[in-house]
Amino acid sequence: MCGIVGAIADRDVVPLLIDGLKRLEYRGYDSAGIAILGDTCVRRVRRTGRVAEMESAALAESFVSPLGIGHTRWATHGGVTENNAHPHISHGELALVHNGIIENHEQQRARLQALGYEFESQTDTEVVAHLIHHYRAQGASLLQALQTAVRDLDGAYAIAVIDQRDPSRMVAARMGCPLLVGLGDGENFVASDVSAIVSSTRRVIFLEEGDTAELTREGVAVFDTDGTPVQREEHLSDVSLASLELGPYRHFMQKEIHEQPRAIADTIEALMGVGGFAPELFGADAAEVLRDVDSVQILACGTSYYAGLTARYWIEGMVGIPCAVEVASEYRYRTAVANPRQLIVTISQSGETLDTMEALKYAKSLGHARTLSICNVPESAIPRASRLVYHTRAGAEIGVASTKAFTTQLVALFTLTATLAKLRGKLAALQEAELLEALRHLPGSVQHALNLEPQIAVWAERFSPRQHALFLGRGVHYPIALEGALKLKEISYIHAEAYPAGELKHGPLALVDKDMPVVVIAPNDRLLEKVKSNMQEVRARGGELFVFTDADSQFGESEGVHVIRTPRHVGVLSPIVHTIPVQLLAYHTALARGTDVDKPRNLAKSVTVE
Ligand code: AGP
């Protein structure tokens, strides 16, 4: 969703701001803008649409400055218009960019209007600019004005501010939305995401909840909620420029699908390093936290939720304890029953998803102390709020459609399952060795599935004119059918639904006719015969079947039944391998339909609003 970048330097920062905003495009946005110091007042350029359009306008207006802020906006309060785009300006002097939502903006707006402030947008953000200006007018420094203003705000924010009257500094604040400071040599930066500044520096400080910061060219000072100066640890980000470039690929989604063998290998590296399913993979005190858990509650959204659904089959099957999986936005608003021995597992690629974060906070407020986060972005909000963490090493995921994050989440969840099983005496040494061996072979099996791409691209041509599709799976492959349907709908805009294959006859079968393609995930597991019967139900109604199976299953192509096989059945890890074909099917179908694969309409990469 929205993105922030800001820079103070001895050189022109406009190219840095534009480059940073382009690197934030993947998060999803509908307008963009920058503000810089001018001769007498702050100068600003804003455009709806792509950053490139705003860039052309900035070039045409000869924007040059050593201090500036930029923003990509994903509309919440107020439509997609130039007036609602950030930065927002107060009295031509003070410019501000903001991520998050100010919940008491209406009261603040009324208060400021009574003080004579005029508003030009419908946003919640503009009140913050005027509020800081108001405190400045009473004699406060820029930092003091920001610190006073944020005390008047309810809600979530990451903010960066510049002021024409104080050209030697930029100030920033964070509450509920990520914001980091980048440390350069004689220049400093703020950003909502390290990718925005990685071409200038990889040295970063992650601001904590309630922090404010003052940046000059020479240094950075950070203050806690009380305004007391604090030292925050400096990190060296492992996000590389190469991971943010397309390379030889047409789309980031394609690149990220193909990176999965490497991403999985990197994710299991730590496990191979310790030589087994050891609690310390999840954190220093994991043995104590995990040893006597009596149940697991998984909380997540979207694709991460489907990873959780897959894990339920593993956890209940291999550990023998109950595992519930719930969409975070539902859990956070219902009366849940607290159980101090329950392990709360949140799963998130970004670590920023607001619903998942709030569900975690809610669980903690109920007294849950055993919390584990499976996350792809270290130092993001969700792992920081969790006692235990498993870092998936998928690398930066830019495409809105989650791919390598999902398969690495599955690897992490499988590792958790085996670790819990071992702690409960349910994993003998021989079995453990077999599972480790299976994981070691997993990148190779995933590569074999990727090699099916040409055959899947041929199927995609047949899908592209369709308006609807059904996905079926049973058991541990049912969540993979759900994931396949989500991938197809989000990037190709084909309406796709997934059902457990056994549920077909209880309603959805009514939809099946010759125009309804039915994708089936049917590996050679103990439910294959049942799935075959469900396939017959489809064929008997004239439905066309597109079946993903493996070389071990004994059925072939026939009229209306198309089959693509992965080389061999990989047992308990089969859902991970069978994810690849459904990702490729969605990707090639979207390609054939000419949609914006990496930035599908209406969607954002990190969903930081409700
Ligand atoms: C998947 O392709 C999505 N775009 C979406 O469902 C995503 O998985 C969801 O928003 C959760 O995001 P997170 O993993 O970053 O928390």
Question: Brief overview, please?
Answer:
The chain is of the alpha/beta class and 610 residues long.
How many domains, in number, for the residues? 3
CATH class of the largest domain: Alpha Beta
- Taking the alpha carbons of the first and last residues, their distance comes to 12 Å
- Provide the β-strand percentage band: 15-25%
CATH 4th-level superfamily of the largest domain: Aminohydrolase, N-terminal nucleophile (Ntn) domain
Count of alpha and pi helical runs: 18
Shape by Cα distribution: globular
Main β sheet profile: 8 strands, antiparallel
Going across the biggest sheet, name each strand in turn: 3-2-4-1-10-9-11-15
CATH architecture term of the largest domain: 4-Layer Sandwich
Give me the Rg, rounded: 26 Å
Determine the structural class based on helices, strands and strand pairing.
alpha/beta
Bound molecules: 2-deoxy-2-amino glucitol-6-phosphate
CATH topology of the largest domain: Glutamine Phosphoribosylpyrophosphate, subunit 1, domain 1
Query: Overall pLDDT, averaged?
Result: 94
Helical content class: 25-40%
- Spans where pLDDT lies below 50 across 5 or more residues: none
Strand runs, count: 25
